[in-house]
């Protein structure tokens, strides 16, 4: 009986680990009936990121996307300015935002007339080489170290007309796996690390073996 309880406990812990494999926030863009909608979800633990003061970038003003040759910024300051910034640990793969180009570079600074609802403000940004990818938020929106976005947007148009490139663009911190994702027209799911999956499988195998053993004894 003790072995069974122990194995159940292990599986519960591993299940939790699987669910947390991609902790962070997601900004999801979808097309619907001639409109583009953005919704935010998840919780960002800023303690798992690096507190920074971005050089060459202090505040973001507006709602929506700003994509030029010099910068790519997405954010919403309808409720106030951002005043606290976070980046990623050394060694983090930044290519999802820097190389893959979720926002098409254009001579138009702002894409769309976005209607915004919600109470949190933020700005995600990168500008090479002065600024590495990160996020700015309002310190007043933090609960401890946790930030939960609740903004949603709507505007007339399509991904193509607004300069959005369909795909899933995630930066996950190299040290903690805390992540920020742009999801544009594609669904994503939490993908556990291979090692976590292996441990989870061992836990299930242990339960199955224990079940067989108990059956033989019956």
Features:
7-stranded antiparallel beta sheet, 6-stranded mixed beta sheet, 4 helices, globular, disordered C terminus
Brief synopsis:
With 218 residues, the protein is α+β, with helices and mostly antiparallel strands. It has helices at 2-19, 95-98, 159-162, 194-217, and strands at 24-32, 35-42, 44-45, 50-52, 63-67, 72-76, 84-87, 110-111, 115-117, 122-127, 131-137, 146-147, 152-156, 167-172, 179-184.
Question: How would you describe what is shown here?
Answer:
By secondary structure, the protein is of the alpha+beta class. The chain has one domain (23-187). The protein has helices spanning 2-19, 95-98, 159-162, 194-217; strands at 24-32, 35-42, 44-45, 50-52, 63-67, 72-76, 84-87, 110-111, 115-117, 122-127, 131-137, 146-147, 152-156, 167-172, 179-184. The protein has a seven-stranded antiparallel beta sheet, with no helix packed on it. The longest helix is centred in the last third of the chain and has 24 residues, at 194-217. The chain is globular, with a radius of gyration of 21 Å. The two termini are 14 Å apart.
Topology:
Elements: H1 2-19, E1 24-32, E2 35-42, E3 44-45, E4 50-52, E5 63-67, E6 72-76, E7 84-87, H2 95-98, E8 110-111, E9 115-117, E10 122-127, E11 131-137, E12 146-147, E13 152-156, H3 159-162, E14 167-172, E15 179-184, H4 194-217
Parallel strand pairs: 1-15
Antiparallel strand pairs: 1-2, 2-13, 3-12, 4-7, 5-6, 5-8, 6-10, 7-11, 9-13, 10-11, 14-15
Helix pairs in contact: 1-4
């Amino acid at each position: 009986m003790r072995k069974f309880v122990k194995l159940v406990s292990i599986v519960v812990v591993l299940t939790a680990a699987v669910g947390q494999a991609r902790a962070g926030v997601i900004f999801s863009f979808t097309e619907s009936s001639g409109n583009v909608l953005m919704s935010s979800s998840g919780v960002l633990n800023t303690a798992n990121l690096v507190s920074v003061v971005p050089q060459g970038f202090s505040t973001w003003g507006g709602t929506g996307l700003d994509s030029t040759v010099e910068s790519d910024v997405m954010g919403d300051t309808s409720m106030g300015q951002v005043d606290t910034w976070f980046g990623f640990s050394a060694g983090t793969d930044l290519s999802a935002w820097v190389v893959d180009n979720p926002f098409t570079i254009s001579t138009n600074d702002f894409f769309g007339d976005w209607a915004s609802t919600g109470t949190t403000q933020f700005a995600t940004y990168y500008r090479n080489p002065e600024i590495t990818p990160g996020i700015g938020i309002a310190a007043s929106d933090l609960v401890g170290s946790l930030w939960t976005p609740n903004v949603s947007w709507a505007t007339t148009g399509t991904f193509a007309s607004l300069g959005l490139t369909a795909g899933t663009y995630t930066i996950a911190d190299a040290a903690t796996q805390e992540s920020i994702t742009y999801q544009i027209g594609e669904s994503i799911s939490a993908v556990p690390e291979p090692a976590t999956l292996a441990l989870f499988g061992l836990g299930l195998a242990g339960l199955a073996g224990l079940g067989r053993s108990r059956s033989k004894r019956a």
